Amino acid sequence: MEALLSLAFDNLSSYDQGKIRKGLRQVEGLLAQICLSSNSKSAAEKRRSVIDPGKEPPPLKTLGDLGNDLAFVEFFKLQNGFEWNVAMRLCNCLDRLMGKSHDDQNDLLIIQTLDLIQGSLLLHPPSRVLFERELFMNHLLDLLEPVNCPAIQSGTIITLVCALIDTPKNTRAFENLEGLLTITSIFKSRETTREVKLKLVEFLYFYLMPETPSIPSANSTVSVPAMLQRSPSKLAGAFNKADTGARNRSESESEVTKTTEEKQVLLGRFLSSVDDLVADLRESTPFGGALC
What we know:
Radius of gyration: 19 Å
Distance between the termini: 45 Å
Strand content: under 5%
Largest sheet: none
Helix content: 55-70%
Order of helices and strands: HHHHHHHHHHHHHHHHH
Shape: globular
Structural class: mainly alpha
Number of helices: 17
């Protein structure tokens, strides 16, 4: 796995679009092998089925299977170190792509990079600590600007959600960098497409949820995310087996959490209809939880 990652990272560090595209495909192939269930197909056939939309991909592994999957366990452990962390390399690749001139090929590479960042953050939640850094959080906010195509804006919103899940410190970084102003300004803009506005509304629902700290800082032992603890027999079990050094959430994280009411006040500075959003959130509980 280290050899494959090394090859992919070499391509991702290039300024050549062809090599970057190859590196993204290599990372995608690796994540596909981890996520897709084993069957009679070879690894190469699995990768092709994911990359080629005309082919039916094999079924996903169940969450309960991950804890017993040696490839996932090895991948998870490698991600705990700086040298082999996929999310870090993808964020650095995104940085270089954003420095290039806008064209269809570059936009497509940005969208593919965002998709893979989402996958890496979901497979290895501790990597979300990267978005405590202003540099990477600012990249996401910059990609939301109208100068970018709607597909990039939509992909960025989903990536932002993946970066903020159960990570209050990241949410505070988002707020400190005027993230709420950016989100609401784009939502109010007449230039913003309907598809992007729908995703922005979904993001605001997500943002208003009460926070639960779970992802540790970079120098602490990896812990099981709260979102995984909701199903201890499958989700938490899988990640516990992937890293036996799990421990309780840090007190420092608990100190930076905010309630729905506190975030309602913050968002209310930029959006007049925030009370309606909160009322709807309390009634519909779109994310399967309840607001007190």
